[in-house]
Amino acid sequence: MIRTCWDLGARPEFAGLRLRPWAHMLGFRGHFSSKSRRYSTRLLDLRQARTAHRAKQARERYGLPDPGEETTLVLAHWRFAGSGYTPGEAVLAEQLRQRIELARKIAAQRTAE
Q1: CA distances (Å), 65 to each of 39, 48, 73, in order?
Q2: Angular region, 63: left φ>0, alpha ψ -120 to 50, beta rest
Q3: pLDDT for 21-71, tens place per residue?
Q4: Tens of pLDDT along 77-107?
Q5: Would the N or C end of the chain have less CB density within 10 A of its end CB?
Q6: Half-sphere exposure of 91 (CA within 13 A, CB side)
């Protein structure tokens, strides 16, 4: 069926049917991720296995120890960097405040008319 659909999709008279882009879906019944729990692995299990594998690869690449379940690995320390806007951010914030104020004035004038 797939081969026939592919061949027919090459013919100009069937171009409007878009058979080739959908040929791979023939004979498929259901969503790509619908799986029976008894038959197949859950997607959650696959994601967890992939995460563990990637973490192991990163530890090996950077020479980090394998943290146990009771271990917390600290890679950096927090420090206070300040509060408030930087000078550049203060200018942008003031420009935004002025635009909002102007927009409110214009809207108030329109409703008053």
Answers
A1: 36, 20, 9
A2: left
A3: 888 777 666 665 665 666 667 778 889 999 999 999 999 999 888 877 676
A4: 788 888 899 899 999 999 999 999 999 999 9
A5: C
A6: 2
Q: How far is 48 from 36, CA to CA, in rounded Å?
A: 19
- Calculate the dihedral angle through the C-alpha atoms of 92, 94, 95, 97, rounding to the nearest 10 degrees: 120
How many CB atoms within 10 Å of residue 15? 11
Quick one: CA dihedral 26, 31, 33, 34, positive or negative? negative
Q: What is the pLDDT of the chain when averaged over all its residues?
A: 84
d(CA 62, CA 77) in angstroms, rounded, equals: 19
pTM for this predicted structure: 0.33
